[in-house]
Amino acid sequence: MTKTAAPRATGSAEWAEALLLSFGKAGYLQAHPAILQPAEPFLDLSGEDIRKSLYLTTDAGGEELCLRPDLTIPVARDYLASGVAGQPAGFCYLGPVFRQRGGKPSEFLQAGIESFGRQDRAAADAEMLALGLEATAAFGLTDIDNRTGDVALFAALVEALDLYPVWRRRLMKDFNRKTSLAQDLERLTLATGTSRNEYEGVLAALAGSDRKAALALVTDLMSIAGASNVGGRSVAEIADRFLEQSTLKGGALPRDALEKIKRFLAIAGDPNQALGQLRALAADAKLDINAAIDQFESRIGFMAARGIDLTKTRFSTSFGRGVDYYTGFEFELHRKGDGDEPLVAGGRYDGLMTQLGAAAPIPAVGFSIWIEAMTQSGRNPATAGLPGSAS
Prior knowledge:
By secondary structure, the chain is of the alpha+beta class. The chain folds into two domains: 1-141 and 343-391, Bira Bifunctional Protein, Domain 2 (BirA Bifunctional Protein, domain 2, 2-Layer Sandwich); 164-254, no CATH class. The chain is built from 16 helices and twelve strands. Helix 5 runs antiparallel to helix 6 (165-176), helix 9 crosses helix 10 and helix 12 (271-284) runs antiparallel to helix 13 (290-305). The longest helix has 18 residues, at 121-138.
């Protein structure tokens, strides 16, 4: 192991029994993924930055392994390896996960639900939020800050603006990494390429190219130089960087596109208020994002049908959880006044299954519960009566 193992986390047997029983009644089978997992999926999907927080080791064959840092990917991998892969199936879980967390215990309990294969996406999204809210209520936590967003709306906007591919990738990356997107938009728009650098010839050669052409050029150049990577960056990463710089030098993000993005990112309120603002933006700016808005509206209807108080639900187009593999609905439930640590958090991740090896896309949505945050805040759930009404 590259780090000293943390003290073992403890949890209430009563709590676990009550929680898993409630999820079982809601139709979710208990999953038991292995604690030791291949490290590659976590590094590929979350980036090398996550490496410093993992407990890593290597097996006899040289494969890099880790103690599971969360349960979503392990549950998804087990589902894909099962006989029901591709079919609708729901799983619940409760168990320890392992992560360096800056002074907090590195081993801690995580519970949650993962739902795979359901084509009724809007209904499944609403079910996840309803179950999360019911779980917090069972702990006596009723004063909840319910934050929601939808990365699919931003993706639809970026696609509708008909930007260069490099801009689309850059904007989506910024959004998913929770960077200050508005500031970055200003910086990128003002990058007119007045300065020169030693790669001026390469940038000029790439002007107007697509990613495939950029990759071919950089591959040829590195082959001539006898190099397979530079500073730890792969050929593909270097090609993307050159293509990005080439595009930025041309001032490829139009001012009109910037203004539309800014107007989009300013939309916030309860879901119905946001829906009206989104419809107005699509009409005024002549943006073809109605399919994504329709899905959003459908989800609002299912949320209301499940008894979720929409007036106490905050939706923001700029809200994101900072997870690259999320593709749609996202949410976090916080105690009022606690802006940092969520009690419950989750979202839709339809692209994850193909990234994990599925031959065809499989819809997926789920959420995790931070046990320590819930138990520090609420009453004993073993006597409170956890949710079990969802189907």
